[in-house]
Amino acid sequence: YDVILQCQQNDEAIDLDKDFSFPHTINFDKFKTNFPQKALVEEDFVVHIEDIFDIEPNSGLIQLTFGSFNKPLNKYLYVNQGKISYFQGNPIPTSANIKAHQKLKEILCHD
Q: Are 18 and 86 spatial neighbours (Cβ–Cβ below 8 Å)?
């Protein structure tokens, strides 16, 4: 037997080009002494700063678990002289990851 599946409708294209940048710089050395120790659990996502690693003054890695409860993502943030970026590329742009990224910006870039 052959099974042939044929689509009867076309879905709109999904925009996968989301902004995962961090517009502000941080004082990494100050952040290391004052970051949330507990996981931040929201209605449809979670953000947890697992660990912090020094590379040089005002630079290092921040180990994160964030995104969906069902399949949280483990990523590192690379901080180089206060500038923040995702190490080894941006996360997959799911709705939970986008919301978690917004929360991370609030945590990292507050005055």
A: no
Tens digit of each residue's pLDDT (9 = 90 or more) over 64-103: 999 998 999 999 999 999 999 999 999 999 999 999 999 9
Instruction: Report how far residue 85's alpha carbon sits from residue 22's, in angstroms, rounded to the nearest whole number.
Output: 7
Residue 23, C-beta contacts closer than 8 angstroms, at least 6 positions apart:
105, 109
User: How far is 34 from 86, CA to CA, in rounded Å?
Assistant: 21
Distance CA 61, CA 55 (A): 7
User: What sign does the dihedral 103-91-14-24 (CA atoms) show?
Assistant: positive
* Tens-place pLDDT, residues 15-70: 777 899 999 999 998 998 888 889 999 999 999 999 999 999 889 999 999 999 89
What local confidence, expressed as pLDDT, does residue 85 receive? 96
Helices and strands per DSSP (H, E), number in the chain:
2, 5
